[in-house]
């Protein structure tokens, strides 16, 4: 009994989701560190730009399908689940082939000869096809709250990629082309495992129905806008820096942004486990419960991030050195990281605002919020780079962007739910104290003094 008092916590969805995100984010930082030490700065900038454009396609697919699939699959009858999953496969195949085909056609256009786009035009179609089974498997496992399987899929992707990069570095053959090869191999291995294990649900493709397909497509028309807008918000900095300051500056900026993975770990974990609870409250037409779940998660996460944010602001040079090496310590990376991580205290309430608007069936309001932030960010980035001529202009532009989205989104949500900022922080603090008391009581019960 004494040795197992933590077992319920270690088996919980919250812990598995958090452990998965910690592991994967840690491996992402490791792979980034290897690349920064093994590739020229310009090649790193080109690789980051390739990932940004590839991620746009992934965001489109995820936005169009994942929310609707999880929303229709979670808690449904087995027959309904098969219909939803089979219909989602139809849409996923069509969308993947369409985007891959359009990019493939661009190989015979002038875009294929633009230096910054050449890598994307050549390799995106194959990458997008190879990641389809693992994408569908991830959506299904999240809907079933099988976070252990999600962890396996993520570890396969990152582990294969890091193993390939390490092998190339040891053999002295690391290059931009070989990094792309490792990326493709990791996608292929993960998707193969997802198919062989039956996690992707390809066999239920025959259970698709025209009505369910139309239902998912209709919902996807709205949800995809929010996903694409959110991705444009994250990637607009990358595109403008690459165009106006060049790949070398982009590499420095990306180094600072990589450490923000530490902030994203609890964010993704809390959101992954909270969405089913939010959806259940909405299905019960229980808006007070919906507001409580929002406040518990957004408020608690804000308090949890506070010491991490303060520590990073004080010691920003340390993560910059650990990830990028000594050559980046005297660059703009540390100060850019300080400014970026300070804004992270707004993330929990801002992110949960968007998710809750979607759950309420108001994805168009979330879309308006995200698009407003994109406009403010692009205008701010352009003005900041023109005025400052360096990365600080981009970092300064993040403040009005975040404040605009935070205030606008919260006011929209407040019209639907009984919320207040002070109440959210108060409920979050109470939730943290409750969790601490439960853990302390369990420890005392297992190890009495």
From TrEMBL:
Q: Does the keyword Coiled coil apply?
A: no
Q: Which residues cross the membrane?
A: 15-38, 84-108, 120-139, 151-170, 176-196, 300-324, 367-385, 391-413
Name one cellular component (GO) term: plasma membrane
Keywords from the named record? Cell membrane, Membrane, Transmembrane, Transmembrane helix
Main localization of the protein described in the UniProt heading: membrane
- Please name the Pfam families in this protein's record: Polysacc_synt_3
Q: How does it sit in the membrane?
A: Multi-pass membrane protein
Going by the entry's taxonomy, the superkingdom of the source organism is recorded as Bacteria
Alphabetical list of InterPro entries matching this protein:
Poly_Biosynth_Transport
UniProt subcellular location: Cell membrane
PANTHER family recorded for this chain? O-ANTIGEN TRANSPORTER-RELATED, PST FAMILY PREDICTED COLANIC ACID TRANSPORTER
Q: What is this protein called?
A: Lipopolysaccharide biosynthesis protein
């Amino acid at each position: 009994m004494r040795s197992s008092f933590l077992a319920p916590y270690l088996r919980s969805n919250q812990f598995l989701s958090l452990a998965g995100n910690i592991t994967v984010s840690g491996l992402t930082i490791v792979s980034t560190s290897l690349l920064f030490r093994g590739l020229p700065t310009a090649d790193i900038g080109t690789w980051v730009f390739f990932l940004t454009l590839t991620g746009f396609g992934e965001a489109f697919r995820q936005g169009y399908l994942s929310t609707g699939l999880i929303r229709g699959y979670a808690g449904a009858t087995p027959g309904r689940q098969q219909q939803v999953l089979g219909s989602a496969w139809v849409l996923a195949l069509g969308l993947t082939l369409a985007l891959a085909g359009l990019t493939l056609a661009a190989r015979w256009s002038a875009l294929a000869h633009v230096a910054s786009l050449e890598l994307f035009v050549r390799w995106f179609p194959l990458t997008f096809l190879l990641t389809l089974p693992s994408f569908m498997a991830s959506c299904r496992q999240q809907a079933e709250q099988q976070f252990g399987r999600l962890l396996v899929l993520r570890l396969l992707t990152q582990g294969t990629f890091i193993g390939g990069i390490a092998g190339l570095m040891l053999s002295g053959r690391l290059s931009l082309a070989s990094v792309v090869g490792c990326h493709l191999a990791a996608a292929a291995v993960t998707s193969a495992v997802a198919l062989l294990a039956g996690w992707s649900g390809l066999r239920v493709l025959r259970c698709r129905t025209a009505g369910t397909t139309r239902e998912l497509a209709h919902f996807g028309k709205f949800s995809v806008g929010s996903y694409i807008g959110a991705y444009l918000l994250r990637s607009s900095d990358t595109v403008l820096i690459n165009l106006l300051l060049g790949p070398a500056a982009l590499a420095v900026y990306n180094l600072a942004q990589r450490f923000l993975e530490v902030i994203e770990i609890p964010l993704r974990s809390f959101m992954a486990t909270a969405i089913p609870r939010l959806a259940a409250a909405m299905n019960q037409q229980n808006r007070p419960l919906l507001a409580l779940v929002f406040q518990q998660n957004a408020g608690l996460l804000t308090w949890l991030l506070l010491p991490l944010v303060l520590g990073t602001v004080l010691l920003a040079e340390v993560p910059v050195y650990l990830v990028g090496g000594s050559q980046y310590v005297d660059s703009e990376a540390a100060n850019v990281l300080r400014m970026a991580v300070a804004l992270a205290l707004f993330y929990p309430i801002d992110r949960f605002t968007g998710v809750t608007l979607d759950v309420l069936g108001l994805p168009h309001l979330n879309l308006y919020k995200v698009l407003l932030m994109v406009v403010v960010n692009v205008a701010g980035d352009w003005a900041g780079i023109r005025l400052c001529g360096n990365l600080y202009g981009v970092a300064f532009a993040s403040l009005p962007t975040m404040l605009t989205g935070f205030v606008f989104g919260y006011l929209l949500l407040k019209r639907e739910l009984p919320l207040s900022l002070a109440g959210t922080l108060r409920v979050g603090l109470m939730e943290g104290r409750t969790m601490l008391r439960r853990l302390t009581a369990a420890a005392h019960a297992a190890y009495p003094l």
